[in-house]
Amino acid sequence: xxxxxxxxxxxxxxxxxxxxxxxxxxxxxxxxxxxxxxxxxxxxxxxxxxxxxxxxxxxxxxxxxxxxxxxx
Length: 72
Known about the structure:
Layout: H1 2-16, E1 27-28, E2 32-33, H2 34-57, H3 63-70
Organism: Botrimarina colliarenosi
InterPro entries: DUF3311
Transmembrane segments: 31-53
């Protein structure tokens, strides 16, 4: 899963460079500029990627050792 998350991060980096929407004046839903809609999608994708990274790739720590040994 670690490689999947890294792949998603790299994909988001590439997709974030949206030079193709700089001069596009189309509207999504009749009011939202397409560049802004694109960045909304990138933000949602980034939050999903971060969720996957914390859920599956974050190191598992034993909190009982940290609190028992470090308490003063």
